[in-house]
Amino acid sequence: MNLHALRLFCAVAEAGSVTRAAERLRISQPAVTSQIKKLEAELGLPLLEADGRGVRLTEAGRLLAERAMRLFSLEADIERTLAEYREGKSGSVRIAATWLPANHLLPGPLAAFKAGRDQVELSLTTVNSKAAFELLLRCEADFAVVGGGRPAPAGLACTPFLEDEMLFAAPAGHPLAGRSVPLAEVVRHPFVLREEGSSTREKLLACCRTLNAGLPRVGLTASGPYETLRAVKAGCGIAFVSALEVRDELARGELAVIHVPDVHAVNPIALYTRQDEPLSPAARQCLDHILAVVA
Fold this sequence. Notes:
Number of helices: 12
Structural class: alpha/beta
Oligomer: single chain
Radius of gyration: 33 Å
Strand content: 15-25%
């Protein structure tokens, strides 16, 4: 079926007149009449009949007009839907992130990105770095935000975008709170250490070895950042943490910083994507928004 002729026929059906339809379409009346006659010949059915100065639909014309208008309405809906997707106004964005960025870095930027994008579905999955990379490689995440500075596995591209300072946090009443002391003195006090295999624990022990400061006294071993902070606030010891983790506690005066001039360490946070694979428009805009806000 000739869709151009069908579109002209619908215009005539809506206008009730070939002349008015031609004026609205800004084409000649004979051109409209010619196309409709060709459509009638193609279908083997009369679609229009004279009605005074205008035309009216035959029964076949009414059946065709009803269905054709639904067809063109669906076409317009498809165009709108794809335009919204192309402009990043619809679609889904799946993010995998390690604990620190998921809890302390992404919520604000994601809330700002989502504002005005009701048709964009956001999901944030908090996992360790290994699981985040696996989600990316299995195409179960669009991009990942991972702390710790781990190298990207084959097939993934890494974009560094933040280096969060590592610091020594202690309860507000700790004898070293707010003081500037060497690492060798700090490690004589009890520590809340992360579990073995934690990048934070590895960074602290590496600093101790480099400065020949000895190993920290273990007051408690905690299996996660949340547990670590709770233990420090309870008075179990000092923790070596990323500044983002304790930002709120420091602002409220619940924790204090011990300044250790001979230690400079950072927690690199980076974005990871699949190599040579473009992001969807919504995912691209979301990632660019995070970079713009955090940078």
